[in-house]
Design goal:
By secondary structure, the chain is α+β, with helices and mostly antiparallel strands. It has 5 helices and 3 strands. It has 2 domains: 41 residues, no CATH class; 71 residues, no CATH class. Strands 1-2-3 form a 3-stranded antiparallel sheet, with helices on one face. Strand 2 and strand 3 form a beta hairpin. The longest helix has 16 residues. The chain is elongated.
């Protein structure tokens, strides 16, 4: 295992005719994957690749972000959690391909009509980023 400059962990498993590699956020996840992959290769089974996640809606992206934050040990504070929940409620059903500049502008106008001030709108858009 090798820790990359980004802080992620790169794992390479090499056996006689097999090679597999993956990158992980946490050392523990990398270690578990390496052990399981070595075991599979030793049992003459194909190494497993981690499942690729293909988000389809904005809510799915928010869920992935929250999961990643939890994985690296960062707890969402109350204001960020509230903002992400509000974004998920309002934009969660929007397909990623339909999330356009115009849709975000409309979101900002709707929040303005509800009484959200410039700082609140800035925080909302900042969390979108």
């Amino acid at each position: 295992m090798l820790q990359l400059p980004s802080g992620r962990w790169r794992v390479q498993v090499r056996r006689t005719q097999s090679y597999a590699s993956e990158t992980f956020l946490r050392h523990e996840g990398a270690r578990k994957w390496a052990t399981a992959t070595e075991r599979r290769i030793d049992l003459v089974e194909a190494p497993l690749k981690r499942a690729k996640v293909d988000p389809t809606t904005f809510a799915h992206i928010i869920d992935l972000h929250v999961e990643d934050m939890r994985e690296v040990g960062k707890v969402l504070r109350r204001s960020k959690r509230f903002t992400l929940d509000a974004l998920k409620t309002r934009l969660g059903n929007v397909k990623i391909k339909d999330l356009s500049r115009e849709r975000l502008i409309q979101f900002g106008k709707d929040r303005d009509k509800e009484g959200a001030g410039p700082v609140t709108l800035s925080a909302d858009i900042g969390h979108l980023r």
